[in-house]
Amino acid sequence: MAESEKAKAASSITQEDKVRIDEFLASLESSFPRETDNLIPILQEAQRRLGYLPAEVMEGIARYLGVPPMDVFSVATFYNQFRFNPPGRHSIRVCMGTACHVGGARVILDAWRRRLGIDRRQTTPDREYDLDTVACVGCCAMAPVTVIDGEVHGRITPTRIDGILLAFEREREGK
Ligand code: FES
């Protein structure tokens, strides 16, 4: 699959997402007055309930508030707290702080990107993994570091990445 197709597949919404988005949009009327001051609280609530902000929900919020969709996109992308790709079952966060950078974080990020077939801030089409970078997590002595499902893994190498992914694969297959 080409990279662009993978990204597209990863960002496309499922039937389950669609139901949850419709439910969320239908709940707006009873939860938030139609005032533009409510835009950020509405976005926060959407992310809390859906795990991320799909384009469809931002368009629905724009319709609800009577503002151009572009305004909603601009506000959402301005704040770091919002994410636009669905969470994977496993979160992979590559530390790009100074010590990790010196220790080869670029190579590690590339290794994750190649193995998962996605770029940072993307989710695999099967929603198994999402990939992103983080600033220093305070474990510089273990550089280069990747935080996997909230747990710090130090001295990561491409070979260790293969081992970690194999372990997840086995777990998934119930071996
Ligand atoms: S720079 Fe990566 S843990 Fe500090």
Description:
By secondary structure, this protein is an alpha+beta fold. It has helices at residues 3-11, 15-31, 39-50, 55-65, 69-78, 98-102, 105-116, 158-173; strands at 90-95, 122-123, 129-134, 146-148, 151-153. A five-stranded mixed sheet has the order 2-3-1-4-5. Residues 1-10 have low confidence and may be disordered. It binds FE2/S2 (inorganic) cluster (FES). The site of FE2/S2 (inorganic) cluster (FES) has 12 residues, from helix 6.
Write a short abstract of this structure.
With 175 residues, the chain is of the alpha+beta class.
Please name the defining characteristics of this protein.
alpha+beta, Arc Repressor Mutant, subunit A, Glutaredoxin, 5-stranded mixed β-sheet, elongated
Which ligands accompany this protein?
Answer: FE2/S2 (inorganic) cluster
Shape: elongated
What is the CATH architecture term of the largest domain? 3-Layer(aba) Sandwich
* Number of helical stretches of at least 4 residues: 8
Under CATH at level 1, the class of the largest domain stands as Alpha Beta
Q: Which spans of ≥5 residues are poorly predicted at pLDDT below 50?
A: 1-10
CATH topology of the largest domain: Glutaredoxin
Major sheet details? 5 strands, mixed
- Mean of residue pLDDT values: 92
SSE ordering: HHHHHEHHEEEEH
Strand-pairing-aware structural class: alpha+beta
Q: CATH superfamily membership of the largest domain, which one? A: Glutaredoxin
Q: What distance separates the N and C termini?
A: 27 Å
Number of strands: 5
